Amino acid sequence: MEKMKIKGLVAATVTPMEKNGDINIAAIDTYAEHLIKLGVTGVFVCGTTGESLFLDTEERKKVAEAWMKFSDRLKILVHVGSTSYRMSSELAVHASHIGADAISAMGPCFLQPNRAEELVQFNKMIAEKAPETPYYYYHIPTTSGVNVDMSEFLKKASSEIPTLNGIKYTSYNSMEMQECINYDGKKFDILHGHDETLITGLMLGATGGIGTSYNVSAPLFNQLLWAFNDGQLQKAVDIQAEANKLIRIMVKYVNAVVGIKAILAIMGVDCGPCRLPLQNLSVSEFKSLENDLKTISWF
To answer: How would you classify residue 175: left for phi > 0, otherwise alpha for psi between -120 and 50, otherwise beta?
Structure first.
């Protein structure tokens, strides 16, 4: 299978929910049109931002199906990761059947593997259930607790997982990321996973990124991509600094997941609350967030 390379911004989507915690499929239509208007290349569905491990298998299938309605205008990447390769395999088969552009899985966050060998085999069991669908390993050690060397992972996975297309690389280890980008003649698609350092990823050779803040900040980051590709490095650095003002506020309010849902609501795209055990903002905290956004002239 020829490796595809994703260019541009992929929004890590939230999962819209009702006040009682049920998923709100109907809200995805308005939400998707919002993202398309902002100029994202695609969506990363049911990932960390999407509260995936708080959802059951059927809920995750329904959310993925709802996003496929927009597959003519967005690349649809579906995260199928869980603590069980059997559960992930079921989700991988489903994502493949509905026509997702790619699937992805983070390392298992329960009794985490600490060697590349076991991590490769875990991912192999998932990927082989969708033999026609590109596969991305989702490297996010601060969340999954799986901190296996990714260059070693690629060396071992390259021959074991034919559909391996690359890595969603959400770590600040720039040396390791560059090694992954350059591995085997730049064979794999290494997608930058930290919005606040996208400029670093571009300098190292990444061509695309998956991020939470792109749900609202994609126009600004598209300006960054344009400036970088046009050789205007200082302008790109300045835009990154401007975008980071928003990101600093986003993570201030509990975490990026809670923060982005609240910011979306303020911007008129109501995706409801987060599911327990995540903390939701009080009325006063919500107002404080709105005031913080005004201090950076976000509106």
So the answer is: alpha
